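Case 370 in the screening queue. Each case pairs one protein sequence with one candidate compound; here the compound is fe (ii) ion. For every case the pipeline is the same: read the inputs, emit a complex structure as tokens, and attach any notable structural observations.

Predict complex for case 370.
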Amino acid sequence: MEATAAKLIGREKITGATAALFAGSVEVPERFLRTKELQAAGVVVGDDETFKLPVVNMAKLLDPELSASETAKLGSACRGWGFFQLTNHGVDEAATQLMKDSTAQFFNLPLESKNTVAVREGGFEGFGHHYNGSSSDKLDWAENLFLYTQPVQDRDMEFWPANPPTLRHALDRYSVEMTDLARRVLGFMAADLGVSRDALLGAFFSRDDHDDDTLKPKMQSVAMHHYPPCHHVDKVLGIAPHTDTLGLTFLLHADDTPGLQIKRGGRWFPVRPLPGAFVVNVGDILDVLTNGAYASVEHRVVPDAERGRTTVATFHDACVRGQVAPLPELLGVGGGEVAARYRSIGKLEFRKGSARATAQGTRFLDTIRM
Ligand SMILES: O=C(O)CCC(=O)C(=O)O
Ligand SMILES: [Fe+2]
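Case 370 output:
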């Protein structure tokens, strides 16, 4: 995130007082209290069968006999839900386990150790609170380590913790796995959308030639989240409602504590992650690329009363020749049969606009919809 955007949605350092609060002090300070917001935000549904998040099975996507129907399932999840769980994804289990363990160990360290990679004034990378907009001074009940992971030259190693000693290697390895996973998933999304693989993958990756092995993400970033337990779950939020501004997100759960909720039909629906599955969601840029076919859907996190929760979100950025715009193939280039539902906008303008909207608690996509 460039300096201007970072200023609009600053991140704050975790103080000793916050660490004590997260460790269980009883009185929740005003800055964390969101009772009114939570009351206004509407109903949370229970474990209603009809609200089961779609499950997409990568093994079926890869099976020639089952691929077509599973691709349709993937498409309908992205269109109707904006979210799905991905099973049999083929991500290296040892890499995933190392990432989970190293992340959990990082958040278990004393504050002084975590603050060696603390977010800096006006900056975005590092350890701290989630961003908070200037219109709301509220803080989320969470601590977060945000890093750019790809392309490799964009890494700022000063923010990559040296402790626990496995974390840097874990991130490096995991980041490659997530690149591969994004490549595979986007290939099937292209099939569902009826666009060429090159068109959709070309928005997310740059490549040296037509060899898939040289595909490099235009930008991949990772947010490691820790939500301490909270006895006042009706008063605080782990992450305030938002949509993901980038293209595609993969969420890894380091434990089985629930907390993620998706907004659907005006109600908040809790996600119950299947063991070993990734929760995958469409971000704002993929919504625009698909000309609104895939939906970027609002979600939030509520802390658990008894157990902490640790997750790792991996984001992939995308653009078409420097623009955030519907894929030309979807508009029937030249023929112009399909009307664009979003106006195209320069990458930088998109980032600034998204940051401004986040700061104001509004949705930037609403301002570029035609
Ligand atoms: O931790 C989670 O469940 C969700 C994280 C999230 O929404 C994000 O990082 O954008
Ligand atoms: Fe998110």
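Case 370 observations:
- The chain has one domain: 16-24+31-167+214-317+346-365.
- The first strand starts at residue 55 and ends at 57.
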